Amino acid sequence: MADLPRTLGLPDFPWDLLVPAKELAASHPGGICDLSVGTPVDPTPAFVRAALDEASDAPGYPTVIGTEEVRHAILEWAARRGMVDVGTDGAIPTIGSKEAVAWLPTLLGVRPGDTVLVPEVAYPTYDVGARLAGATPVPVDPTRPDSWPDAALVWLNSPGNPDGHVLTRDQLRSALRWARSHGAVLASDECYAALPWGAPFVDEGVPSLLDREVCEGDPRGVLVLYSLSKQSNMAGYRAAVLVGDPDLVRPVVEVRKHSGMMVPAPVQHAMAVALLDPEHADAQRRTYARRRELLLAAVDAAGLENDPDSVAGLYLWVRDPSATSPDSWALVDRLARLGILVAPGDFYGEAGRGRVRIALTATDERIAAAAARLSAAAQES
């Protein structure tokens, strides 16, 4: 049993490899600026905490499918994003989006011998979820469905973690046409959709796979995940949603019933309240925009380059254009000596080699300290 992770073919937990760099960064006289993870640090909005308290008298078991309140809130949120109406049978709460990513292949009936396509630069849990189901994960370019092999399930992630790339409506349509012609389920993790930075998305919003213009009003074969962790600082609540084809959601619900995968009732009420209030999400986006601009200027001053296609999400996707060969860990070490901890691009697949992911999720004081150190180091060099 001690070797179960190896039996399942799971990789080492990547952040364990970052411990030496973290120790080096922590030795800086000014303390560590940990920009390696996307953990929100700002307060959960007071009205969300009040909603949690309002529903805290919850002696009975919650339902797996979710309350009418939370499912209707999910549908109202989806309508604001221009998504097709899937009805309450196509919308459920989940225990955070990482849980849903990790277990969705298994819940959908993906089995050994099946192939699961994952973005070539991606959050590791897409790969892990395929392995948990006994399937084979295959990294692909999400913008090139003409090059994809046959698969049972395809993952999209837009805006992307770590790269901040956004798939256009045309690219989403192409992926959907491929999935339907190959009998594959197409799942899109859109948990950073509330954080657009570049044109045209900052004005028009990030398009969803369930956008009426993308799926032409037909949600068949499509599932979308979204999380309140980032937009509402509710990571500790484990509050996310799964919305899409009711014929896919129903069997997922049945397995979740058997396995007791239930979102606590007070959290469901807090989710509903948060989903119905876009103003607080807009305010949080403005906070991240301010931090992003500060870090972008410092990264540029340090002679580093953010990916020009990184136009949404919580991260900068940075490389050293002067490096003679791509080496993420050399850049991790360089920044750790300044007391700044970042994540190597290698964590996100071979296509990420040479880059590092820099998170915006630190306090204003730590972001300012990191920016000052980068700027000072540039002046000294």
Written account of the structure:
This protein has 15 helices and 13 strands. It is globular. The protein is α/β, with parallel strands linked by helices. It has helices at residues 4-7, 19-26, 46-54, 68-80, 97-107, 125-132, 169-181, 201-204, 212-215, 228-232, 246-259, 265-275, 278-301, 328-336, 364-380; strands spanning 33-34, 91-94, 115-119, 136-140, 153-157, 185-189, 222-227, 240-244, 305-306, 315-319, 340-341, 343-344, 355-359. The longest helix is centred in the last third of the chain and has 24 residues, at 278-301. 49% of the residues are buried.
Short note summarizing the structure:
With 381 residues, the protein is an alpha/beta fold. It is 40% helix and 14% strand. Strands 2-8-7-6-5-3-4 form a 7-stranded mixed β-sheet, with helices on both faces. The protein has a 4-stranded antiparallel β-sheet with strand order 9-10-13-12, covered by helices on one side. The protein has a two-stranded parallel sheet with strand order 1-11.
End-to-end gap? 52 Å
Helix and strand run: HHEHHEHEHEEHEHHEHEHHHEEHEEEH
**Low-confidence spans:** none
Overall pLDDT metric: 95
Shape: globular
Which structural class best describes the helix and strand composition? alpha/beta
**Largest sheet composition:** 7 strands, mixed
Provide the β-strand percentage band. 5-15%
Count of helix runs: 15
Share of residues in helices:
40-55%
Widest sheet: strand ordering: 2-8-7-6-5-3-4
